[in-house]
Amino acid sequence: MPTGVRTDMASRSAKSFWIFIAVLILLHLTLRVGLALTMVPDLLVVAALLGARRLSGAGAAFYGLLLGILADSLALVAFGATSVAFVVACFLGARSRNLFEGDSYLFIIVYVFFGAWLVEAIRFGAGGAMARGQEPMLLLTAAPLTALYIALAAVVAMIAYRALSGHR
Description:
Helix content is 71%, strand content 0%. It has helices at residues 3-34, 43-52, 57-72, 81-95, 105-126, 142-165.
């Protein structure tokens, strides 16, 4: 296959992936903010973690900052905690490419589970949850369940993306 064809295919693949990420962000805003459906998983976390794997460390940190500011603009308490959490999680997500290759569904579940749990842990610590009377035990009980829910949502989103785009 000529080099120009590969570059064009890679460009289309990257463009369709970032459109997928934009759709996740819009879905999050529509479902959680517009329709106030709180049972919907946090699709901003999914978008942040999946997008971070495609960027460099600094690019992923900036991307996490932008999504964190978007999430924090909707927060009632602990403004800035989500931005800090997204910056750290996205930077580490980008660096994880050096350690783990591939995007199998099992990897996505594990990667997003730990990323979402990390986001919850940083939000808990940076957001002053203990000062508001929340128990640290939530990080071992409720946070893993939330992270698992977000990880399953990420896998469903990736299955839909791959089915619609034809990418593997």
